[in-house]
Amino acid sequence: MQEVLKEYLRVGELAQQWRAVETAATREAMMAAAWVLARALALMLMSQVLETRAAEPVSWPNCKACGKRLRSKGWVARQWSGVVGVVKWRRRVGRCPSGCKIGQVAPLDQALGLEAYAHTSVAVQEMACLLAVLMPFDLASRVLARLAGVVVSASSVWQWVQAHGRAAMARLDEEIQRLAQGERPAPEALAAEIAALPVMVGVDGVKVPLRPDARGPTWSDRVARGQGRPHRPVLPSGAREWQARLRDQAPSAQEGPGSGRAR
Fold first, then answer.
1. Is the CB of residue 48 less than 8 Å from the CB of residue 87?
2. pLDDT exceeds 80 at position 65
């Protein structure tokens, strides 16, 4: 199977991409060329599968407005952007013979779960929204093009963020409404090995050793045995001087609010 694939890559549609992998001088260049070849191969396979499905006989549904059976209006091109690039194919579309304003109907799109005007996958939109959390929309669109090879505008990223934000707020409002009606939220699913633990402790720290080593007990072990105390916090320069001044200016334990000490 591998020999057949290599032979096809040498003489087939992807011969140029395969030669780029074979002639790459460095490891980085080879990896970049292999990624381009892998994406091109994935797109070609998806296009062939879609063309095969589009060639199958179509059972046209009835018009939602008048009930008459739709008629084929020929082949129309369609493209869709995913995490591996842009897939292009052709499929049959139908219209109502009575001219009802229902638009074009593509049974293959409905079978694939594609909306009428959707041109970008949900995975690409989620990736763009995550990038937009960390950087401006224009930079997010550039990074997305670099990572996934999908070229979108900054305004498209902004629209996706707004749409997903509205959907998240709608889900939150629905959950709050169910909670107000007395319905308790469903707990998050845990892995079997975590659910079996009697106690799970999380530690947030960077200088707290928790694992024992050959040098002896760790700091957490000494603290648990009463043989140690927490480390003093590392304060910035000048902070201890300000602490001393605040202690000198603060009222003593025996001094009341009306003791008359000059301030």
1. no
2. yes
- How do strand 85-95 and strand 71-82 relate by DSSP bridges? antiparallel
Alpha carbon separation from 200 to 195, 203, 248 (Å, rounded): 9, 10, 44
Res 155: pLDDT: 94
Cβ contacts of 184 within 8 Å, gap of 6 or more: none
C-alpha R_g of the chain: 32
Q: What is the DSSP track for 220-240?
A: HHHHHTTS--PPPP-PPTTHH
Dist CA 122 CA 110 (whole Å): 16
How many Cβ atoms are within 10 Å of 135's Cβ, its own excluded?
12
Q: What's the rounded Cα separation, in Å, for the pair 43 and 242?
A: 65
Check the CA dihedral 164-166-172-178 and report its sign: negative
Q: Please tell me the total number of residues recorded for the chain in this structure.
A: 263
Exposed, middle or buried: residue 47 (CB in 10 Å: 0-12, 13-18, 19+)?
A: middle
Would the pLDDT of 258 be above 50?
Answer: no
Three-class SS state of 114: coil
| CA nearest neighbour of 108 among 57, 73, 69, 67 | 57
Residue type, 100: C
What is the rounded CA–CA span in Å between residue 26 and residue 136?
Answer: 34
